[in-house]
Amino acid sequence: MYWMISDRSLPAGSTSPANFGTQRGALTYWTNEKGPADVAASWKLLSGGDEFKNALAKVASQFPPLGADDNNESQKHVTLFVHGYKNTWQDEATRYKQICDTFFTGPNSLGECVLYDWPSDGEVFDYLPDRAHARDCANDLATVLSDLYDWLVDRQQETQVAAQKARDQGMGQTNQTGCRAKTSIIAHSMGNYLLQCAMAAVWTRKNQPLLVSLINQLLMVAADVDNDLFGSGETVDKSDGDAIANLTYRVTALYSGMDPVLGLSAGLKHFGKRRLGRSGLDHDLPVPDNVWDVDCSAFFQKNKASGIHSAYFGDPDCQKLMRAVLQGVDRTVIVNGGIAPKPLAKAQQV
Q: Please, what are the averages of pLDDT over each run of 10 residues along the chain (350 residues)?
């Protein structure tokens, strides 16, 4: 099953992603029961957000419940994929299919993955318009995440009531009524800027709660955002990074100095800090305890990867790392087990 939420413009009467425009439009909701995910004719336009939410909740309700406290890493996910800069709908649908084939298909599936589609222009010279579109679309993504926040709060309350009722009836603890899915996000490239703006809006809308895990695992892949985003550390300064850190259980940034696309991004901006996806976190500043970064350059050199900006999704070692991160494996285990590469010496970095 494939899932998509889009705020690309769609001509009146159209029911196909093939007719998506390059401007922002109303949110639309889509499912694809048989695939392929990258064929426009396979997608069905739903009546609205409620139909989409009910269908996804029904599928997620079939996930196996947590049977014991020590199998947290096997819990299924509902994961949102936010694509990046210079992506036509066909480009992002192909990337989405690759992610689903790698992580959300077969006996080792992590659960269900939802594509969040926003109007990237799909041209190299349209970097600045894409950035403006990402900023403009942030409120739409914030609406999706706010609805998710409210839904999770409701499920938590239902779980608490059911657990208390079971104890009152002498039934002991039960996980049958608990939430059966973690919520995670994979954001790529400029999709991280869209997510940054959206998470800040959600945090503000929800009165800036502290340490509320709307998102269990956030994977920021080749993030086209400033590398001092989390520079406030543990201090609550109401910044965008503060919002992300407080709404997420763990943030993992994958980066590489070998990424020429983010070199172009930095050159076009002419202001601000280095790119997080090219330089990693600015460790001269304090960093929240739940935020860390991994330099994937050694993987790319070892596997002779090309197209570094997107190579994370096809590189086998990066795929293993991303799966471990999404499963919630402790970062110390990831590093000591060799799942994360050792950083390259400065002289080897490009």
A: 95 95 93 94 96 92 72 85 88 96 94 93 55 80 90 68 64 58 92 94 88 89 94 89 94 94 66 85 94 96 94 97 96 94 53
Contact by Cβ (8 Å): 2, 31:
yes
Question: Do residues 308 and 188 touch, judged by C-beta distance below 8 A?
Answer: no
User: What pLDDT score does 349 carry?
Assistant: 38
Rounded distance between C-alpha atoms, residue 270 and residue 275, angstroms: 12
Show the 3-state SS of the chain: CEEEEEEECCCCCCCCHHHCCCCEEEEEEEEECCCCCCCHHHCEECCCHHHHHHHHHHHHCCCCCCCCCCCHHHCEEEEEEECCCCCCHHHHHHHHHHHHHHHCCCCCCCEEEEEEECCCCCCHHHHHHHHHHHHHHHHHHHHHHHHHHHHHHHHHHHHHHHHHHHHHCCCCCCCCCCCCEEEEEEEECCHHHHHHHHHHHHHHHCCCCCCCCCEEEEEEECCCCECCCCCCCCCCCCCHHHHHHHHEEEEEEEECCCCHHHHHHHHHHCCCCCEHHHHCCCCCCCCCCCEEEEECHHHHHHCCCCCHHHHCCCCHHHHHHHHHHHHCCCHHHHHHCCCCCCCCCHHHCC
* Rounded to 5°, angle at Cα 97 from 96 and 103: 85
Torsion sign (Cα): 199, 55, 45, 4: positive
Distance CA 276, CA 228 (A): 8
Report how far apart, in Å, the C-alpha atoms of 173 and of each of 79, 177, 268 are: 28, 10, 56
Give the closest residue to 131 by CA, choosing from 203, 189, 82.
189
Q: Tokens in use for 42?
A: 């396979």
Identify the CA nearest to 274 among candidates 285, 166, 43, 3: 285
- The token pair that represents 265 in the structure block: 């991004």
* Cα–Cα nearest to 244, from 277, 198, 281: 198
Cis omega (within 30 of 0) on the bond before 288? no
